[in-house]
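Consider the following assembly input.
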Amino acid sequence: MGSQKKFRVIVVGGGVGGLAAAHAFEKAGIDHIVLEKGEIAPARGASIGIYPHGARILQQFGTLQAVDDETYPIERAKNFLPDGTLIANSELFRFLRQYHGYPIPVLERRRFLEIMYDGLSDKSLIKPHSKVVDIVDSEDSVKVVLADGTVEEGDLVLGVDGVHSLVRSLMWRNANAAIPGFITANEKKTLHADYSLLIGFSETGPHMSPSDLYCTHYDGKSFLTIGGKKHTFWFVFFKNDRVHWPALPRWTQADAERRAAECMDCPISETQVFGELWKTAIRTELVNVEEGLFEHMFFGRVVLAGDAVHKMTPNIGLGGNCAMESVVVLTNLLHKAIKEHPQGKPDKAAIQNVLHEYQKDRQVRMRQFIDFSSLATKIQAWETTWYKVLSRVMPFLPDDTFAKQASILFKAAPKLDFIPVPGNLKGSMKWDDDVLEAKYRESFPRPSVSDWARSMLRYTFKPALSLCVLWIFLMVRSSKGSDAVASNWVAR
Ligand SMILES: Cc1cc2nc3c(=O)[nH]c(=O)nc-3n(C[C@H](O)[C@H](O)[C@H](O)COP(=O)(O)OP(=O)(O)OC[C@H]3O[C@@H](n4cnc5c(N)ncnc54)[C@H](O)[C@@H]3O)c2cc1C
């Protein structure tokens, strides 16, 4: 990159992943800019729930307290039949808190983005109303072209521009121009949707506990209702025929109203029908429920994270947490590469190594999250008889079964590995990286005072004593020698 000295990342997208990248790069001292086509924290979308693997990262960013202050943590999950009969009443979220030490808040997505933005030290690096339209990738640098003709130059582009990612399309174009057929037509069809989703939120009313999550099962449909301090967030999943990207339909507000009309009289609990939520709705939207994990997460100097490359169904609420995870993994690798490079500016080969490592890590872990989320979607909406049976059997399993499965995934989460996790939120389960660090410390233990004294004795005192003895011996010998010379001289 010619005269430019510092390694610079151009982040495209100022949503969950983009603002997480701004925090992570700020902590790592990596030069960056975040380009967002709209405003930061727009009044769109519904909620975001933060699970322990995301919470630990937010704690490192310094934004966790503000997120937790926004609402009450979710405690219980209740499942209902289509007639409103309660079939399961689980302490799922309490177990998760007990295992990892973190409460599970669910807050408005817009508020979450505001908190993330407010927590940044240097807001001048976040550029709203900066729509990216092209990427020119070359040997020495990468250029990002904005809709107003401005060009930003850097060493790496991080595309966190969501499920309809333009960066992904531009990366494919550049890849296939360089290596024909590198991205196959099949890979481009990775993203598919089996469901559409009616999203909305209302004021929390008297029928909804502000710490409960309700799941109501229907054949080919499910309702999720999450009570919060101010708002109740609700989601209706509708099973459709599978459609693949790029043929995914765009839904209008009229489509949303048509879908809502089908559900007005549907019970969502023992005491409430859907129409009660709909009539007090603050915001509603109908969207596709895409899912898919792309094989290629990078090409050249362009890398993808978040929904652009690992999109999961939102039934558990893991996509945003995973976007933050991916940003953290990339930051750790870049931080190390920059530190190891003599001028603090890794060359293209070093960047490729970083991106290979990143892809290797993310492919395995994101597959687990996507499959886990997909299973929840199918069980909740009784996709087939098999899933219906599962939903009826699960309440008879020990209450902590689901929490334990989820925790196996959570405890293997990454964190920024170059700064500590402040505070002391500990659960009954240990994080895998803490266990690894402890093992490392066991094999290379930090010396205690007695170890230090022993090694001083062994490596310093004993050799010094030996040297002293040797020195005295030589002195005595040499003085005996000079006495003999002196007495000879006197005798003469
Ligand atoms: C109904 C619903 C509920 C959910 N609940 C949860 C939950 O509880 N917990 C959870 O962890 N996840 C949840 N998710 C998933 C979560 O919202 C996403 O996984 C997360 O937002 C992905 O972050 P991202 O940064 O990849 O994309 P986004 O957050 O979508 O951000 C992409 C950004 O890129 C910008 N952009 C796009 N194109 C351009 C361009 N050309 N130039 C510049 N900027 C551009 C967009 O304007 C946008 O701001 C939910 C999703 C849905 C649909």
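The chain has two domains: 8-438, 451-492. Ask yourself how this observation constrains the way the partners meet.
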